Amino acid sequence: MKRLLHIMFLILFFIGLTFTGLTLAQIGGGVKKKRPLPHEYGRVIIDNYKELWYPVHLKEPSAPVVFDHWLHRARFTCRLCHIDIAFAMEASATGIRASDNKKGYYCGTCHNGKMVYNDREVFASCSKNFQEEDVKRCVRCHSLGKNVKREYDFYTFTEKLPRGRFGNGIDWEKAEAEGLIKPIDFLEGVSIRSFQLEAPKDFDLEAKVEGIPNIIFSHKKHTVWNGCEVCHPEIFIGVKKGITKFTCVNNFEGKYCGACHRTVAFPMLDCQRCHIKAVQ
Ligand code: HEC
Ligand code: HEC
Ligand code: HEC
Ligand code: HEC
Ligand code: HEC
Ligand code: HEC
Question: What residues have CB less than 8 Å from 71, skipping those under 6 apart?
Fold first, then answer.
């Protein structure tokens, strides 16, 4: 009965949120109109350049880049890309240039035609001089609005992974804990081997509204993906618990927990994965 009440409470709060101007779509992830499908969740459109860049004889206009987190996060940690390779955690904010990729930065860190992953060469990214036959490679990334056949099908790729309710429909935390995926956290020549700080013990974050279950925040589980640097000091100043003042509404707006739990990690809609602690 008590549990039922908590769920009712969460639902009421949730309805309240939608009245305060936060739409369901925002809560579901991003500012898109509809909730993304499992294979679309975590998709980033990188779109800074509108100009034509293909030589006229190829008759191909440029197309924005489509980047899928599901394919990449199954293989690499968030920390590797967002700290070592330095991608911004905001669509189109990195300011990637074709020449950066070509020199081996950003996408070109891996997409250089040399890195081997699962016995396959990772296809190269941008180049200045290219022929008709290279265009097929260009449009693997520059694919928005083009009918490009993917090598990896989301549903086949994720078939054996444990299910989750929202987002990609996958419990990524469990997939990692059970060893079904082993995201790489270190790339020779790119990452710097730093000494490992020990993660603080799991603690409760208080929901501060009566009847709302508290949150158990696990440093240990988060460190697997994020090291310390993805969160401290950018997202949480965090030298001491309670220093960062925030509410769940801030999370829904994409700050704090919502920096990740809105577009890539399981979404805010999944109240009960965070509000887990029994109410005293
Ligand atoms: C292979 C590299 C890679 C990995 C691994 C990766 N990301 Fe990203 N992420 C990116 C790129 C690239 C962007 C887009 C940056 C840009 O457009 O400038 C991005 C963007 C984001 C954004 C902003 C999305 C949006 O819609 O604005 C968030 C949040 C994010 N990543 C979180 C994560 C989290 C959490 C993980 C780990 C579970 C992760 N990323 C793993 C490369 C990666
Ligand atoms: C840390 C390494 C790494 C980085 C950085 C990275 N990728 Fe990848 N990406 C991979 C690997 C490995 C594959 C699988 C390649 C294969 O098996 O052929 C892949 C595959 C892909 C695919 C193929 C999808 C398909 O099904 O055909 C696309 C598209 C892609 N990446 C886009 C990008 C873009 C765009 C960026 C930069 C914004 C990027 N990647 C950055 C490692 C990386
Ligand atoms: C692994 C993914 C990937 C592949 C493959 C790729 N690109 Fe790119 N390219 C990007 C990303 C990411 C950007 C940045 C887009 C943005 O910010 O809007 C970019 C930007 C560009 C730009 C515009 C920016 C600038 O600096 O001028 C050009 C031109 C370009 N690519 C050409 C090419 C050509 C030509 C090919 C094929 C030979 C190619 N790219 C293949 C990922 C890729
Ligand atoms: C996913 C984000 C995230 C990651 C990754 C993370 N932290 Fe934190 N950390 C937090 C949050 C949230 C708090 C609580 C902040 C608050 O209440 O103001 C916190 C608080 C702390 C505190 C204060 C604890 C206390 O009891 O006062 C320390 C110390 C700390 N983190 C160290 C680390 C170290 C070391 C790592 C890497 C091993 C790490 N954190 C990784 C989110 C993170
Ligand atoms: C830097 C990105 C990031 C931030 C910030 C972040 N998380 Fe996470 N969190 C993740 C990733 C990645 C996972 C793995 C599961 C997934 O991707 O769905 C995860 C998993 C979890 C889980 C399931 C694992 C477990 O501990 O049982 C909970 C609960 C959770 N996060 C709560 C929080 C809370 C509460 C906050 C804010 C105080 C927070 N997270 C902030 C990235 C983040
Ligand atoms: C990613 C984890 C996460 C998810 C998912 C989540 N919350 Fe929260 N929520 C938090 C954290 C952390 C706090 C505590 C903030 C603080 O320190 O006051 C919180 C606090 C609250 C509070 C107390 C008032 C406030 O704003 O601080 C309410 C009510 C609440 N959440 C409702 C919800 C509802 C309803 C949902 C689902 C629609 C939800 N939460 C989903 C992490 C989460």
Answer: 152, 154, 157
Task: Give the model confidence (pLDDT) of 162-182 as tens digits.
Answer: 999 999 999 999 999 999 999
Torsion of CA 124, 128, 132, 136, to 10 degrees: 30
Atom of ligand 5 nearest to the CA of 225: 12
CA-CA distances (angstroms) from residue 275 to 139, 170, 262?
Answer: 42, 19, 16
41 lines ligand 5 (CB under 6 A): no
- The three-point CA angle 48-50-51 to 5° equals 125
* Cβ < 6 A, ligand 1 pocket: 30, 44, 46, 67, 69, 72-73, 76, 78, 80-82, 87-94, 225, 259-260, 263-265
Confidence band of 53 (pLDDT split at 50, 70, 90): low
Protein residue whose Cα sits closest to atom 9 of ligand 4: 238
Other Cβ atoms closer than 10 A to 44: 18
